[in-house]
Structure formats: structure tokens, C-alpha cells
Amino acid sequence: MTSTPDDVVDPAAAQPAHPADPAPEAAPGAPRCSRFGLLPRILVAIVLAVLLGLVMPEPIARVFTTFNGVFSAFLGFLIPLIIVGLVTPAIAELGRGAGKLLAATTGIAYLSTALCGLLALGVSLALLPRMLEGAAVGALENPEDSAIAPYFALEIPPVFGVMTALVLSFCLGIGLTLVRRGALQESFEQLRAIIVRIIEAIIVPLLPLYIFGMFLGLTLNGQIWAVIGTFLVVIVLVLVMTAVVLLAQYGIAGAALGRNPLRMLGRMLPAYMTALGTSSSAATIPVTAECTKRNGVPDAIADFVIPLCATIHLSGSTLKITTFAVAIMVVTGMPLDVPALIGFVLMLGVVMIAAPGVPGGAIMAAAGVLTSLLGFDEAAVGLMIAAYIAIDSFGTATNVTGDGAIAAVMTRLSRGRVEGDLTAREHEHVHGV
Known about the structure:
- The protein is an all-alpha fold and 433 residues long.
- It has a single domain (37-414), classed as Proton glutamate symport protein (Orthogonal Bundle).
- It has 16 helices and no strands.
């Protein structure tokens, strides 16, 4: 990549140290493929919970509800720390050394993410109340609040509230962009490493057991079939909306470059399929960049935009979370407060930037916004985790494919505004697929 004064920054410097989407590996160059990944484990946990819930004796079931109570308390304690530990350094890194191209790319990526969330919100509000009519289950019961009460309860009060964590993160993150890099920023980067390690070593391994206990309780409470029916309907709706989003994104990209948008979208298929298999935007960066270059995007733009957008552009993930959030609110009878939901989508676009690169990391980062702005309890958040991971790879594939569209738009915007080699070269083959 040819460097340009002030306007184009080194992609390695612009890219934060953590990928945006849940990923089974830590870095694109060193994949670690699990023989039995998180999604299969969660699916097995759900199936076992439904089957065993029909015959499991209450004393044994209370063991799992006790675990769920302790896990929920620990999760509630950890969520504000997750927000501070992830959002603060993410904002600081986006601001450090930002030139015009970085600012424009970040703005377009956030706009794309927010618009996808608002589209999902509008479609969900229009269709889901009718599609899910008759599927209402009332307030989801936590197993520990039902007939299968836990053997004991453990309270772990958080250090501060979720909204306090959000405001504190914004203030500190923006403040760190205004001062020289020093010990404080390094401390927050170390805090992020600790938080990510806790998620990797404790939260993620225990998620299948937590979801098992959640669905076991739903089975014993007689709510499971309504929940499963809701999931299937919403998954179909999400997949249809992701197709519409990609067509719209490449309609704009095609207009920006004067190319056939369907052919451009077809050339991104290797990146889409790679993300579908890895569930990782970071692991897909080399393939996404090469597919993007085949669409006529200069190497300098692609090599900058693709690594950056792998971190900050989460249109597919935001679409999924928004749709499932509305679905859960519908079936549980929660009020659909439209202004609060709009605020939730706009805030979600900011918080998702800081999602750690571990399986389930994005929904963990979003849990604080779900609880603070929409009033989700532990049972609803547990269902959100299961729903998100169930179609995780499709959201990631939508994210990375949309990154190529943003690179095309940035190619058009950069003409005559930045220096350097912006010549589009021919790339006939895509390697690494």
C-alpha cells in the first residue's frame, strides 16, 4: 500500500487488536479448528435439554438451575466490566492517527450497520407480531424462580451499572484520543486482554451448560415448543433480510464503480463461503481483500478498508440481534417501545465495534445494551445467546461481504482526494479458499 500524508493510514495500525465477530481462532494466520465447535455443542445441549426435561427428576434438575443462578450472577457482575474493558480501548484505537479516509470509512461503516439495524427493526415490528401470533408465552420464567428452585442463590453485585459503564467508556475512550499514548491506554489494553481471556476461558466453555439449564427449565415449565417455533420463524426472516441487505449494498457499490452489482456480488462468493465456514471476519480478511480487488477496487483502498471494516462493520450481526430482540419481546409480552428500540439499535452499532474475537463475543458485548435499554432479564439474554450463535456464521458472512461494498464506495470517494496509487489491477484468482 502506498502511504499518503495524513489521509491514508497503515492498515496494520488502523486495525484494532481484536476482530469484530465471534471467531474460533485468534488470528487469521493461525486458525485453530475445533473438532466439536461451540455451535454443535450448543445444539446438542438444546436437544438434550428438551429430551431430558421430559423425564429428569426434580432433585437433579435443581442442580442445573443452581448453576444457572450462579452463572447469571457472575455474568451480571461481568457485563459492565466487559463494556469498559472492550469499548474504551476500541474507541481510543479508532481515534489514534485517524486521517480523512479513516474517518470516512468509519462513518460509512457505522451508517451501514445502523441502517441495517433500523431495517430489521422496521420489518420486525411490521411482521413479527402477526407472524408470531399465538406464540406468546408470557414472561419467560427463570428455572430458579419456578417450581425447580435452586439449592442456593448467590448474589454478585456489579461494581457499577451498565449505563454508567457505557458513559464511562465513551468519556475515557474519547479522552484517550486527545492525549499521547501512555500508561493509561496500555492499562486499558491489558484490561481488554484480561476480559477477553475470561470470556474465552470461563464464559464460552460454560455457555452450552448454561443454555442446557435454560432450555431444561423451559421444557419443565411447558414453554419450550413456543420458543422453538419462534426461533424457526425468525431465522427464516433474518436470512431473507440479509439477502435484501447484500443486494442493496452492492446496488450502491455498483453505482459507485459503474459495474454490474450482481457480478460484483458473485465475485464476493468465495469470501462469503469462507466466512460461513469460519464464523470469523478476521480469518476471512485475505480472501475478502482479494475478492474486493477483483471487483475493481485498488489495492491501496482494499488493503486499508477490509481489515478496518472486519472490526467495525457489523451489519449482519446487528440485523440478527435486533430481529431476535423484537421476537423475544413479542412472545414474552414486553411493550414494544419504538423510541427505546431505535435508541437500542443506534447504541448497538457503537457497542458492537468492541465485540471480542471469541465465539459468542458479539452477543456478550451486546448483553449490557439489551438489559439496560430494553429491560431483558437473564432468561431473555440466555435465549438471545442461543439464537445468535444458531446462525452466527450467516451474520459473519453478511458482514464480510458488505465490507467489499464499502471498499467500492471508498474507491469512488477517494478519487482526487487522496494521493498514492489508486490504479485498479486485474486479480483473476482468489487464493486461500
